[in-house]
């Protein structure tokens, strides 16, 4: 099975004394059900799985369940022989967003403390915002993403020894030797093609057939578009239109969402589509990067309200849309092909999966910086520039940015295909695969950058 980092999070929570119910949020097809089922069956003698989509399309046993007693009664009809004690019984409520009233009930199930619970779903941010009684203090919500690059490496046979050695190199800002660098760049380019959706990764490992991988990615991409729009009947066409425009926006110089292009209507502004953006982001199928007006720590204090970049949640879906079955466009690093949007999508998905909130800076006179993240150790913003070509040292906007004393920038990074790790003033040049070690958890000793 695929190694997923979230397994340790689930296991730690289920074996702790916490009375909160763990709620795994995330886009469909990222592996939520599989990893919960795997971990739950490993830890508990009695594992009860309740799928609310299946219930809604079937007997609707839980459609009108309003009390804890009624909930137990319905569960007992399905798996009464497995309802034993809290220590040996886990009840998994899958696709809980189908019945929003069950989110409210989590509070009372937690208080009753009769069994151990875990739940998962998609669009939970939207569902919780529409729930009359949010179970504050009773849930712990964790977002799950497609496989990140490190998990992709594990899936392709790399072990802890190799990855630990690379992490230490990164922490010391040292380069890999040339053969290892070439291997890592080869794996990174394959990651750009395959992405991190579990079905696509498994298909690649088993068949090495790009057409089979692309069929899975195309199916999920279509499913995402249809699934996101069906949740809001009134705005479904606009939601689908925003989602479908993401790849073409990436090919524009500014890459940000242009409100007037969504419905091809003049006079439309960003605020006209806030609900549509929120839907796609909450569903986990679009990743958001917010504009910053004053790039100083903490970045959230100066977030722009009318500028936004959206990225697809999986780089494999993007390369499938852009290049189809032609793997040479990515693997051969063709000079005629600009991989800028592809590299940026990979970096965005890595940083967000590692807990970073992403921002960017764009000033007419000073230029644009691809990404800004908060560094809680130095209490400063850290700019990250993504380069896919040979001119990775050319970045006038970044130079101006780091030298502006008002911004208090202590360090900046340029990620590229270049093997060597070098420093020029505040700017450090690192190979792009090192982005897998940029964790936002300041408690993790392995996160210093």
What does the average pLDDT come to? 90
Strands ordered across the widest β-sheet: 7-6-8-9-10-11-13-12
Number of strands: 13
Low-confidence stretches: 442-449
The computed structural class is alpha/beta
Number of helices: 18
Computed CA radius of gyration, to the nearest angstrom:
23 Å
Q: What is the general shape?
A: globular
Report the major sheet.
8 strands, mixed
Helix content: 40-55%
| Fraction of residues in β-strands | 15-25%
Distance between the termini: 31 Å
Structural overview:
The protein has helices at 6-14, 32-43, 52-57, 68-79, 100-112, 124-129, 149-155, 160-171, 178-194, 198-207, 210-230, 236-251, 259-262, 274-282, 315-323, 328-331, 340-353, 396-402, and strands at 21-26, 46-51, 89-94, 116-121, 139-144, 286-292, 303-312, 359-363, 367-375, 380-386, 412-416, 422-424, 427-431. It is of the alpha/beta class and 449 residues long. The strands form two sheets. Strands 7-6-8-9-10-11-13-12 form an eight-stranded mixed beta sheet. A five-stranded parallel beta sheet has the order 2-3-4-1-5, with helices on both faces. A hairpin with a 3-residue loop joins β8 and β9. The longest helix has 21 residues, at 210-230. The model is unreliable at 442-449 (pLDDT under 50).
